[in-house]
């Protein structure tokens, strides 16, 4: 079973924001919501400036799932953490719990009323029928069901951002690191966010939420 | 007796007017989570890629892994 993850290679990211644009366009994300964003540190310092593309990491032990008071989150068999907007009450607990700042809320109306939570879905929609208009309007495209990968990763010009089955993408990254090391450059092989999101290497795979174990699920 | 009719009338009018102040329950029914459909079942639109069979998990995994390798220039450029 595939276990979907993202890797952002900070040695390759050039802060072009192509992933941000791709995500916004593909999922028709409204103004004010940034499912993915590029963060740059040491801006302007030659040799030390690094950029990283950040979105929901679909954590193994997702803190958003743990704190949600209405239990609107679930994990698919592919390890993707999704949520049901029909259940979400927009309380914002998940945004405080998330170490990556993934949950986003649209401020709309008077008194700064928050919308339902919105976040990266690994381009795999939500509980509505795969590829349906209802699913697109609430969650965006379901590219996984179309046999594709998230557009942010697929269109990354430098292939800094790669997404997909963890075994495959970590193999791709390992190959890069070994080539860099053989060239005497960038000996570090740390991947941004992986230890936070998935624990130390060798951690057990997360358990997906079985459909028949979801309280009140319609059969 | 006349006064009683007036009182009764006032009560009826007040009852009708105050009915608008009633509050419907905020949660009509308990929201229930719905089970999601696995991606290997395919999508009901015209954007499906070719080369795999919707409903066949093995064929979907193979297609996704193949697509995954497209992100590696070491396998794309030989």
SSE layout and pairing:
The complex is a heterodimer of chains A (219) and B (78).
Chain A (H helix, E strand, L loop, with lengths): L3 E5 L9 H10 L9 E5 L8 E5 L8 H5 L5 E3 L5 E3 L9 H5 L35 H7 L11 H4 L6 E5 H17 L11 H5 L21
Antiparallel strand pairs in A: 1-6, 2-3, 4-5
Chain B lengths: L1 H18 L37 H13 L3 H4 L2
Summarize the structure in words.
The complex is a heterodimer of chains A (219) and B (78). Chain A has 7 helices and 6 strands. Chain A has 219 residues and is of the alpha+beta class. Chain A has a domain at 4-59 and 120-208: Alpha-Beta Plaits (2-Layer Sandwich), CATH 3.30.70.20. The radius of gyration of chain A is 18 Å and the shape is globular. The termini of chain B are far apart. Chain B has helices spanning 2-19, 57-69, 73-76. Chain A binds chain B through residues 1-2, 70-72, 74, 76-78, 82, 84, 86-87, 124-127, 129-132, 141-142, 144-149, 153-154, 156, 159, 162-165, 168-169, 172, 175-176, 179, 211-212, 214-219, and chain B through 30-45, 47-49, 51-52, 60-61, 63-65, 67-74.
Q: Strand sequence of the main sheet of chain A, in spatial order? A: 1-6
Mean pLDDT of chain B: 82
What percentage of the residues of chain A does DSSP assign to strands (E)?
5-15%
Number of strands of chain B: 0
Number of helices of chain B: 3
Count every helix of chain A, treating DSSP H or I runs of 4 or more residues as helices: 7
User: What is the first-to-last residue Cα distance of chain A?
Assistant: 23 Å
Oligomer description:
heterodimer
Strand elements of chain A, count: 6
Tell me the helix content of chain B. 40-55%
The major sheet of chain A is characterized as: 2 strands, antiparallel
Name the helicity range of chain A.
Answer: 10-25%
Shape of chain B: rod-shaped
Quote the average pLDDT of chain A. 88
> What structural class do the secondary elements of chain A suggest?
alpha+beta
* Overall body shape of chain A: globular
Structural class of chain B: mainly alpha
Radius of gyration of chain A: 18 Å
Task: Name the chain pair with the biggest interface and residue counts per chain.
Answer: A-B, 51 and 34 residues
């Amino acid at each position: 079973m595939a276990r979907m993850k993202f890797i952002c290679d900070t040695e390759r990211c050039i802060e072009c924001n192509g992933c941000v644009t791709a995500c916004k366009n593909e999922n028709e994300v409204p103004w004010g919501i940034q499912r993915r964003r590029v963060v740059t540190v040491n801006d302007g310092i030659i040799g030390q400036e690094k950029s990283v593309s950040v979105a929901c990491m679909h954590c193994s032990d997702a803190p958003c799932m743990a704190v949600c008071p209405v239990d609107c989150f679930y994990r698919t068999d592919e390890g993707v953490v999704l949520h049901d907007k029909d259940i979400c009450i927009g309380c914002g607990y998940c945004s405080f719990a998330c170490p990556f700042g993934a949950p986003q809320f649209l401020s709309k109306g008077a008194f700064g009323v928050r919308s339902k939570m919105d976040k990266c879905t690994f381009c795999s929609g939500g509980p509505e029928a795969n590829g349906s208009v209802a699913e697109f309007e609430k969650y965006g495209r379901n590219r996984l069901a179309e046999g594709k990968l998230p557009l942010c990763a697929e269109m990354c010009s430098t292939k800094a951002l790669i997404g997909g089955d963890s075994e495959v993408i970590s193999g791709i990254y390992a190959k890069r690191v070994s080539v860099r090391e053989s060239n005497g450059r960038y000996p570090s092989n740390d991947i941004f966010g992986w230890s936070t999101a998935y624990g130390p290497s060798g951690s057990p795979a997360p358990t997906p939420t079985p459909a028949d174990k979801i309280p009140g699920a319609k059969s | 007796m006349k006064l009683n009719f007036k009182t009764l009338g006032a009560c009826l009018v007040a009852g009708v007017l105050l009915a608008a102040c009633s509050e419907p329950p905020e949660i009509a029914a308990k929201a229930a989570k719905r089970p999601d459909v696995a991606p290997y079942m395919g999508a009901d639109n015209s954007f499906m890629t070719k080369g795999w069979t919707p409903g066949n998990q093995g064929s979907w995994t193979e297609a996704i892994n193949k697509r995954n390798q497209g992100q590696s220039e070491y396998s794309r450029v030989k």
